[in-house]
Design goal:
The chain is α/β, with parallel strands linked by helices. The protein is about 35% helix and about 15% strand. The protein is globular.
Length: about 220
């Protein structure tokens, strides 16, 4: 299905949301111009190069977390098209912009709530992960399944954590435990979702887990702590 979408996008290309050039929904130049988020720990706001400071790293299920841009401007517009306007092709430029910052490993995704998948007809995180694997030459393999359909949009970290208890479980077929895992999602808000998903993989025995997300919502709130 994903390969068919790519063929269709090649035959009938979109126009860039920003400059209007016939290309993807965000052209190569506009992708490159996406602003980078601050180089800080996503949990406490301290300066950090891989998204986790020395203090917070021992308490995280993943070794590093890479976030490509800030959830504003073109990035916000692109994800809005992907999540709320059924523009599946928006996953391609999102993944393309992330590819240079993605380590080597098996690419998987944080499953979206089943109710949202039914409404959209697809899981936006899986679309981004598939394209990211294609751009990086990594293997894509779904590793997690999701139960429950609670709405997390607008909820604070504590509520999200409660909603996510028991939300994820392992898929039947998994890669070897010695393979690095690239855990992909679209937006980092409080971090509760990607943390819960990573913890399931860590509990299964995976030790080299790297989170890779497209956009960071309101990083200034984290820096203000």
């Amino acid at each position: 299905m994903y390969a068919l979408e790519h063929i269709i996008a090649t035959i009938a290309p979109h126009r860039c949301l920003t400059c209007g050039v016939e290309s993807a929904l965000l052209c190569d130049i506009c992708c490159a111009l996406l602003p980078f988020p601050p180089s800080c720990c996503y949990k406490c706001g301290k300066e950090a190069q891989k998204g986790l400071c020395k203090t917070c790293r021992p308490f995280a299920a993943f070794r590093s977390i890479t976030i490509r841009t800030i959830y504003e401007g073109n990035a916000k517009l692109l994800l809005h098209r992907l999540k709320f306007e059924r523009a599946v092709a928006a996953a391609q430029p999102a993944a393309q912009s992330m590819a240079a910052y993605c380590p080597e490993g098996v690419v998987t995704h944080v499953p979206t709530a089943s109710k949202r998948v039914r409404q959209r007809g697809y899981d936006q995180a899986s679309r981004i992960a598939w394209y990211l694997a294609r751009y990086t030459g990594n293997k894509y393999q779904p590793m997690l399944l999701r139960s429950g359909s609670q709405r997390q949009l607008g909820q604070d970290r504590q509520v999200r954590q409660q909603q996510l208890l028991g939300a994820f479980r392992l898929a039947a077929k998994l890669p070897p435990l010695n393979r690095p895992i690239i855990l992909v999602d679209d937006v980092l808000t409080t971090g509760a979702t990607v943390e819960a998903a990573a913890q399931i993989l860590a509990d299964a025995g995976y030790q080299a887990i790297h989170a890779c997300l497209f956009a960071w919502a309101e990083p200034r709130l984290h820096l203000a702590k």
